[in-house]
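User: Before I run my own analysis I want an independent prediction to cross-check against. Here's the chain; please return only the structure tokens and, at the end, one sentence I can use as a sanity check.
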Amino acid sequence: MANGTKTGVTQPNLNCDACARLCSFRMENKSLFPAYFNAPVPSFGSINGEILVVGLAPGLHGANQTGRPFTGDGAGELLYPTLLKTKMAKGKYLARPDDGLEMTRARITNAVRCVPPQNKVTGAEIAACNGFLSAEISSMGKLKAIITLGTVAHGAVLSAVGLKKSAFKFAHGAVFELPNGILLADSYHCSRYNTNTGRLTTKMFEDVFYNVLAQVNG
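Assistant: Structure tokens:
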């Protein structure tokens, strides 16, 4: 059953069929990669976290394989060391879900929970998953800041809290205070493409997280 329309549900069930294209792709991958997780990837970290990091969608050979956001792909090679460096997480990141890494202040999720073909999601798929993101934000009683990785995540968060995208234009390093008092901070996505091309450097990425911490702790 597609449970995305249920109020208050923060995670889709493992057999969610809300998006025909993603469901079909998931079935293909179950045949091609039977040892992979091949299901909607759940969020990682406590619902009591103060900072929510929102990405785009699981990578085929990353989170779709491991069942943990940003684990096993190039983007995680920048995200998790940054979380550890800023003490939003503890332990070691070894690119597998049993590495013992723990979130301390942060929680990680995606705008779309299933892996999309060619890493590209549609507007309908973002909308179908948006109820989960909305419920997740509402359920995080200690939430102080949301860090969005890329324009898709930025737009999904604004939709999830009922705000117009035109009022909060995405820009790397931008920080907005939303009407509910929660901070919204933007970063370019930590994808291999962005880091390899120099669009996003390690310092640029870390600065976003340090800036959020400074404002949350202040």
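Sanity check: The CA atoms of residues 190 and 196 lie 10 Å apart.
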